[in-house]
Amino acid sequence: MQVAPCMTITYDPRNAQYLDEADVRNELSRVADVCVECRQCVTLCSAFPTLFDMIEQRAGGDGARDAGRLTPAQQNQVVEECHQCKLCILGCPYRPGTSEVAIDFPRLMLRAKAMLHETGQESVRRRSTTQLIARSDLSGTIGSATAPMANRIVGAAPGTLVRKVVQAATGVSSVRLLPTFSRQRFSTWFKRRPTVRIGKRQGSVALFPTCLVEYQQPSIGHDLVKVYERNGIEVSVAEVGCCGAPWLHGGDQDQFTKVAARNVALLASEIRRGHDIVVPQPTCGYIIKNDYPDFVPGTDSAMVSEHTFDAAEYLMKLHRSDGTSLDMDFSGDVPESVTYHAPCHLRAQEIGLRSRDLMKLTGTTIRLVQQCAGVDGSWGMRAEHADESIAIGRRLADVVAATDGEVIAGDCHLANVVITEQMGTVAIHPIQMIARAYGFAEEHVSG
């Protein structure tokens, strides 16, 4: 395929043309022309059927398809419907490095959102809600400090007056089940716990706790620390905040770059002290490994990417490496079967299904589910996306229910909240399943 001279095939945010509207729209047309002929991703999300239908509707009198006939508003609709699940890039026959056509649809959507933000084409409402949603450390700090009162608000029944007031103020859907806040933050628990003496040292990690573990589900962090220490891994906590995903997915490139630069510097210093980085939530892990090097290029971000691991990935590396071993004494509570939901952002890291592999070591039967949850960070929590996101969540619940596993486990806490929303069943993190298999009881922190 020939590329017009005025068109820049780039996903590099440092490129001078990255935020140029004409260049972005030309690139959107180029990619759409390829995708409408391929259609491999038509079942993954609504963005592709929407795109293909609009191209068909604007076909010329001879029936020829030309994505260049789409209006800016139609292009914007496709951009808005992309929720950054990343699945389309995994099997794309045109992905960069494998084809001269060089298509990375998720990165193009990020580029288009950044362009819309930069050129002031977002609504005032959208811009203001991004400002609120993206400040997750601020909302988390306030939510934990006022947990009983905050949880009465975010935990109010969907569709009630109090939730409608929250939607009006923040843009967060009034009909979604929301994760509640923990009164005790994970980092507070970690600082107060007695020092544990490590016997045979097999590793040293700095935990990037993520907002969800720090403020809302610290029990994941509790179990991770105990499981790691049982396996001779020293654990410290990296003094970092949010990974910046809401800024990136909201199109605010400048704010995301500031967050990324700060976190890269802090994480690089941890690595130089001899620690690997472990991340218990897949969206944050993906951001650190794949997006930080693009927005903050250099030796530090490359080093951070190389030394960052998913929680189960690190344990499986320990299990499979020469000179280290995993404690295989699973004499605690091991369910007969586990329905394991593999989140999109973990699959997109292309590290394999390490959580599945880890849980299988306990002797349980794993029933794998690879259906998208439709939440993907803050996208599914926004009021304007609630209907579509809930419909995707229902499809996930139907697949999970059909497996009839004794326990449901998934690495993404937001996806687990979707499962609870649709099924009324609490899903746990795979590390928590391992903790129970070791005999560790869950520590309950009031909210």
Describe this structure in words.
This protein has 447 residues and is an alpha/beta fold. The strands form 2 sheets. A 4-stranded parallel beta sheet has the order 2-1-3-4, with helices on both faces. The model is unreliable at 1-7 (pLDDT under 50). It has 22 helices and 7 strands. α10 crosses α12, α15 (282-295) packs antiparallel against α16 (299-306) and α19 runs parallel beside α22 (430-438). The N and C termini lie far apart (57 Å). It is globular, with a radius of gyration of 22 Å. The protein has helices at residues 21-38, 47-57, 72-81, 87-90, 105-118, 124-133, 136-145, 147-154, 161-170, 186-192, 210-216, 218-230, 245-250, 253-272, 282-295, 299-306, 311-320, 344-347, 354-360, 386-403, 413-423, 430-438, and strands at 203-207, 233-237, 276-279, 308-310, 337-341, 365-369, 407-410.
Query: SSE order in H/E notation?
Result: HHHHHHHHHHEHHEHHEHHEHEHHEHEHH
Instruction: Please work out how many helical segments DSSP would assign.
Output: 22
How large is the share of residues in beta strands? Answer: 5-15%
- Alpha carbon gyration radius: 22 Å
